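User: tokens in, sequence out, please.
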């Protein structure tokens, strides 16, 4: 049976070049980076070289880069770390959007339970945040705005640079106002130059761009106040204590360098395959609808809702044919309720339950797309015939 993996937004295979860079640090270069002997200093050098590599790609200082355990941890560090620090300055308000990953939304809601004030911005039918809504929501008590770079479920790219410019203007009137973005979905396809983006904090996770699982990256602009959430050591300048996972850090930096170096080539090739998939599905399957922005979207994501078919049933039927896809974020795909992203975009629950996300990668081929276009229409047709008539 042919196998087609179209769930790269959930996770990616580790690039062979990345694996090669990591292997020595699992065995012969096994030292603890905090030890002062040769083995320790060899490991410390590897961590700092990785930090420099990441900083060069993000166009920032090495001391502005922190390594954590996952993107989720980096998001929590950015959001809770900064707001808990700013609270002593009377800052108790933060702003996010209704389509954020749960790593961001749940972190914000956790603060809300501690009497912080939270504003969740609505989005339009494409999942885009309004600059006007954002400006209206900012008050003198606002300490943080956190808006994702690009949506991991529907692929919509948010106007991050415009948001940053708006916040920069407001900073002349409002002290201690900062901007964070979760850029986990954007690495292989969009620029990560933090000076161009204008952000104060940015989160990444290596397993989204052909690096290892279990390592996150957090950029914190110099001068941005942030406190640790856990305690127990000086590691990562006290922000994320605990012995550094040297092999994973080395792999994360290598994967990031490869992803950004090959970004243009990957984007062009994957965009063509995505467009072929979108065009084919909309043509072959009546009652199918593309979700997310039709133009301002990531090259790798094609997401749909299908009338008269349930998403989980579609996924199981596709899996039986060797095709891997998703009903949205991998972190929420086990839940029964409709996607919060689609709900925020105004898509009715009866349609949201028929949502499918295909996310392509650099290994995706034309033959893979053609196979999906052969199998999916038959799957949808069969499921619709089986569905109870109301």
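Assistant: Sequence out:
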């Amino acid at each position: 049976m042919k196998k087609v993996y179209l769930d790269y937004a959930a996770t990616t295979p580790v690039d062979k070049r990345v694996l090669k860079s990591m292997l020595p640090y699992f065995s012969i270069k096994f030292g603890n980076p905090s030890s002062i002997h040769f083995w320790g200093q060899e490991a410390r050098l590897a961590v700092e070289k990785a930090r420099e590599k990441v900083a060069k790609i993000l166009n920032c200082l090495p001391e502005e880069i922190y390594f954590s355990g996952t993107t989720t941890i980096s998001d929590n560090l950015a959001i809770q770390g900064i707001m808990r620090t700013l609270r002593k300055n009377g800052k108790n308000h933060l702003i996010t959007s209704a389509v954020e990953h749960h790593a961001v939304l749940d972190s914000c809601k956790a603060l809300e339970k501690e009497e912080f004030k939270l504003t969740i911005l609505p989005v339009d039918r494409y999942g885009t945040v309004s600059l006007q809504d954002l400006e209206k929501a900012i008050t003198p008590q606002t300490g943080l705005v956190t808006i994702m770079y690009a949506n991991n479920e529907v692929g919509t790219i948010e106007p991050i640079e415009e948001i940053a410019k708006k916040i920069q203007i407001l900073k002349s009137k409002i002290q201690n106002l900062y901007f964070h973005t979760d850029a986990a979905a954007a690495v292989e396809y969009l620029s990560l130059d933090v000076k161009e983006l204008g952000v104060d904090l940015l989160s990444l996770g290596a397993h989204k761009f052909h690096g290892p699982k279990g390592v996150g990256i957090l950029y914190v602009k110099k001068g941005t106040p942030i406190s640790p959430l856990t305690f127990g050591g000086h590691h990562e300048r006290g922000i994320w204590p605990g012995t550094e996972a040297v092999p994973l850090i080395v792999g994360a930096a290598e994967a990031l360098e490869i992803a950004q170096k090959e970004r243009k080539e990957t984007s062009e090739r994957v965009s063509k395959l995505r467009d072929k998939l979108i065009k084919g599905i909309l043509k072959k399957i009546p009652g199918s609808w593309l979700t997310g922005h039709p133009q301002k979207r990531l090259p790798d994501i094609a997401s749909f809702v299908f009338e008269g078919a349930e998403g989980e049933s579609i996924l199981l039927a596709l899996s039986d044919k060797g095709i891997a896809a998703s009903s949205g974020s991998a972190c929420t795909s086990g839940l029964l309720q409709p996607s919060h992203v689609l709900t925020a975009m105004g898509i009715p629950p009866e349609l949201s339950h028929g949502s499918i996300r295909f996310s392509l990668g650099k290994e995706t081929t034309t033959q893979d797309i053609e196979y999906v276009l052969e199998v999916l229409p038959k799957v949808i047709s069969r499921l619709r015939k089986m569905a109870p008539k109301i």
